[in-house]
Amino acid sequence: MAETGAVRTGLPGTLARLPGRVPPVVADAGLAAALFLVTLGPGRVAGGTGFALQTALVLPLVWRRRAPRAAFGAIAAAALAQWLMGVQLPADAALLVALGTVTARAPSRSAWAAGVVAVAGAVLAAARWAPEGRVLASAAAMTAAVAASALLGANARIRRAARAERLAQLERDRDEREHWAVEEERARIARELHDSVTHGLSVVVALADALGHARPAETHAVTARIAETGRQALTDIRRALDLLQDAAPGAGRGDDRRSPPGIGQLAALCERTGAAGLVARLRVDGDAAAVPATAQLTVHRIVQESLANTLRHAPQGTRAEVRVSCAPGTVTVEVTDDGKAGAARGAGRPGPAGSGRGLVGMRERAAAFGGVLRAGPLPGGGWQVSVRLEHGGAP
To answer: Which residues form the domain of 123?
Structure first.
């Protein structure tokens, strides 16, 4: 015995797969031919008239799905001619097939009209050919057959409508998923641009302001810092734009400038911030290499946005401390400065200068790793941003 779920081969498997491959007209022609042959037994069709009526009753079934109302009308006309001629044929069953097709595919008004015609035909056939004393029973039996055919057609109509609704719902769900995926990608790119480019431009502005007060011997060093920070900002812009288009296979994958920044780049970040006038001390505890690249990018962006916020809005002479603690499955980030708590601080600090976009972006990044970002003033003055990310050690 074959195992359950095995693929059927040979003739049974071929017949099982056949209905999905045969065009509807061919399948309906086969149905008409089968019905014609089954009802064409010896003594059932007499002479050329009976043969012609037999053909007229069965042949319209070939177009029953392409033109259900026309096929039903042709069969009903042939049945009426048969009744008027007094020729009784088993091929009258074609009228039931056509009725089921009209009920399944035609508008409801046409289905009701076809049902009335079929019931009238059943009553007329019983009145003419039923044995004496069994007219009512014969009419009731044929009317039941008409009702059964109509119910089968209605059931097919309901199932087809349900299947179409399911397909439409699947398409709507797919479109909605694609829409939200695009929106999520846009939000992610916006966060990348805000976190990286805003920081770079803040450093450039601070250095440009310092350039006017620098001694001639320091001018070259300051301009070199401005150029370096500008190039880094351009690299970040290119990286964000690369997310918007399909890069060529293998293009730029070996370029270190396009690798996402992580904990290892925090030292350079603090150095650039220090050149702009904000002294930031970095402390990294634990094994940073065990933190996944995606979590490292989140750590880098949170520190970057926090330092950029302090650089933009804290008073001169403010110092910052960045502490990153790496533990198995978690990483904790704290960025603390000793600036005045009442100063306007852009993202998350009070004051008119901030739009709040930076704080929102940091919260979303933290939430992606199950973290809750906390930002606020310290009791003794200053500001702190802290978050604990649960990365689970996944690469």
So the answer is: 10-129
